[in-house]
Design goal:
3-stranded antiparallel sheet; 13 helices; mainly alpha; Zincin-like; single chain; 3-stranded mixed sheet
């Protein structure tokens, strides 16, 4: 990892990364554009600009330093949309309006970054501010926090009931919005732990979140301009409320796994890492079984024919959101992990008693990229 680099050295590395990102965007969105001259400016008033007369695409140093990399990529895509417009035969009419919006669509520019003209700081600040939850969302989260707080009880039945009621409330809130035809803003939240690898148990947590919390998850990587390194990331997509709750649950489960392992590790005698993996995967298996049973019971008690169609429509919109970010997304299967049977089975039994109680994450999303 580079250390003590001068700003001019960092900017040279940023330009190299921007060039790579540019090529990836063109390839992923099947867009053919001539490579421009990239420039890092010191402007505090203009964060991005495309000049067709000189073929220069500019990004501000202040944008890169003061905003997460996904924001920089959206500004880059915005300027690429202007470049795409300038290459069209009707370039005079293409600079603004419907044609520019079409070019933004081709490149996966989020709606809040589609205002024609150069990108100014106010546009970026407004786009990031859209991640603030709605009033209804805040009320729902407050109720869920109170319900989950009941899970702190030493009585596992009370804790399980709190868990079930909280999940039921989330499901009702989500379906209510679908029934009422409410306009949803979809958020993209990145969990970046500055690691080069995502552990197997973390992938299992992601599977649980995707199955039960109305989110889609993509395992990717993200560039960090502060250290000129790329790290593996977990990116959650869904409504603002759903990704907020899912992110909370991710951190809760990861921390609870570590706490339970620390309390029980002395009872196992196998290879430490394999024992730990066995216990973690067993815990998550048990937790998934518990959620699945609760979900099945709710479905049997409150069966509604139209609910399935509403959920399917919501999933289709969410799939479109993910496709905007990752147009060439593909699934990759991994080999099964080696586990110790006894430790794994004990983890399952313990996992069936886990409840989502203590608030474990005070972190904020690095960027709420939202789609109407």
């Amino acid at each position: 990892m580079p250390v003590n680099l001068r700003i001019d050295q960092l900017e040279a590395l940023w330009l190299r990364q921007i060039s790579r990102e540019y090529e990836d965007i063109c390839r992923n969105h099947n867009v053919l554009l001539p490579t421009p001259i990239f420039e890092i400016t010191d402007s505090k008033k203009v964060y991005g600009c495309w000049r067709s007369t000189t073929g220069i695409l500019s990004l501000s140093r202040h944008l890169i330093v003061h905003h997460p990399w996904p924001v920089t990529l959206q500004v880059l895509k915005h300027e690429m949309a202007h470049q795409l417009c300038s290459n069209r035969p009707d370039r005079g009419a293409a600079a603004h309006g419907e044609v520019f919006q079409q070019c933004c669509e081709c490149l996966g520019v989020l709606p809040e970054f589609r205002r024609a003209g150069v990108v100014v700081p106010e546009m970026v600040e407004q786009a990031v501010a859209y991640s603030v939850l709605s009033e209804g969302g805040r009320r729902c989260l407050a109720k869920i926090e109170k319900l989950l707080a009941l899970g702190r009880s030493a009585n596992e039945h009370e804790a399980a009931l709190a868990m079930e009621k909280a999940n039921e409330l989330l499901e009702k809130y989500h379906l209510y919005g679908l029934r009422e035809g409410e306009e949803h803003r979809y958020a993209s939240v990145v969990i970046d732990q500055k690691k080069k690898k995502i552990a197997g148990y973390q992938k299992h947590i992601c599977s649980i979140l995707q199955e039960f919390f109305f989110v889609r998850i993509v395992l990717s990587q993200l560039y960090d301009p502060r250290c000129n390194e790329s790290f593996k990331t977990i990116e959650l997509f869904g409504t603002r409320e759903n990704v907020t709750i899912a992110e909370y649950c991710y951190h809760f489960l990861e921390n609870r796994l570590a706490l339970l392992w620390a309390a029980n590790r002395q009872r196992f005698r196998g290879t430490a890492q394999t024992e730990k993996n066995s216990y973690y995967l067993g815990l998550l298996r048990g937790f998934g079984q518990k959620l699945r049973e609760q979900q099945k019971n709710r479905a049997e008690q409150h069966a509604e024919p139209q609910v399935g169609a509403l959920i399917l429509a919501g999933e289709q919109r969410l799939a479109w959101v993910v496709g905007m970010h990752f147009p060439r997304l593909r699934k990759v299967s991994s080999k099964g992990a080696k586990v110790y049977g006894t430790t794994y089975n004990e983890g399952i039994e313990t996992g069936r008693q886990i409840t989502l109680n203590d608030a474990v994450s005070g972190s904020k999303p690095v960027f709420g990229g939202l789609l109407s």
